[in-house]
Design goal:
mainly alpha; Na+/H+ antiporter like fold; 0% strand; Na+/solute_symporter_sf
């Protein structure tokens, strides 16, 4: 776990320094993100989906994790009403509390703490708890500010144009083939998939803005809901109904305790809500995760 945290920190720091020293321009950054979204991450998702062990119990884990995230949204709404937060801030906090950085950041955390088998399950977990819900809620958020009209047809079109979702579907379909694909055929795919984590962490580092930490009030409220209330709900559920944490539940606890999703901040910005709060929460949350995730694992 400590080695994984060290690697995560180094890749994010390299990305941050590349931004500070202006070693990357918009053109290079766009190429990097294009490679990540269209090639490296789909390879990782396809490989993980094909090799992951999925059962009804695992689907229950995903469902409880999703409920835990939604509970944190209710917590934000409750406090928002008490403190009479303005509409733009409240919508931003609720949307960002719904989604954690379950793939870019969560995958290396789980891989370092629990091993390759659980890391493969993260791929499917991410799509059920983050990817697919995000694909539905993002257009709704954009429609709230009149940026675009919400349409289920457009949502499904966008979903089936997504390389990440298509990689998931292909992985599931290949699992249904009545014979096992030789592992040697996965060698180049695994090599491509191994580039996803360092490139994703590097991209996170490029987007970091540490000056935003000084504006802490709203980010602290958001991170309290996303990184404390949500995992606490899951933690209590497991203790009450199971007594102890299996590796699958530990994986879910790590993922639910992840800081807000970087892509969520981009949608907030595009929709015209409070992008500064969203970006500050993402930055602050990444730093907090280096302390909070080991603590949650310790108590589990």
């Amino acid at each position: 776990m400590l080695l994984a945290m060290y690697s995560i920190f180094v890749f994010i720091f390299i990305g941050y320094m590349a931004n500070v020293l202006r070693l990357l321009g918009n053109k290079q950054s766009g190429i990097l993100l294009g490679f990540l979204v269209n090639f490296a991450l789909p390879a990782q998702i396809f490989n993980g989906t094909y090799h992951a062990s999925v059962s009804v119990d695992f689907l229950l884990v995903c469902l409880i994790a999703l409920f835990s995230n939604l509970f944190s949204v209710l917590f934000v709404l409750f406090l928002g009403r008490i403190f009479r937060l303005e509409r733009s801030v409240l919508i931003t906090l609720c949307f960002m509390a719904t989604f954690g950085n379950t793939l870019y950041l969560g995958f290396p955390f789980v891989q370092g703490a629990l091993g390759e088998a659980q890391a493969n399950q993260v791929i499917i977990f991410d799509q059920f708890v983050t990817g697919i819900p995000f694909a539905f809620l993002a257009p709704i958020l954009l429609s709230l500010n009149g940026k675009t009209a919400f349409s289920f047809v457009e949502v499904f079109k966008r979903l089936f144009r997504s390389p990440l979702f298509l990689a998931l579907i292909c992985g599931v379909l290949f699992r249904l083939i009545p014979f096992e694909i030789p592992e040697v055929l996965f060698t180049p795919l695994k090599s491509l998939a191994q580039t996803a984590t360092p490139v994703a962490l590097f991209a996170i580092g490029v987007q970091l803005n540490l000056r935003g930490i000084l504006e802490w009030k709203y980010p602290v409220l958001l991170l309290g809901a996303k990184m404390f209330v949500a995992p606490l709900v899951l933690f209590v559920f497991v203790r009450v109904f199971y007594g102890e944490f299996s590796n699958a539940w530990k994986m879910a606890l790590i993922e639910v305790a992840m800081p807000p999703l970087v892509s969520g901040a981009a949608i907030i910005y595009k929709a015209g809500f409070n992008a500064k709060v969203a970006l500050n929460a993402v930055t602050f949350g990444i730093l907090v995760s280096f302390v909070s995730i080991p603590l949650w694992l310790y108590f589990a």
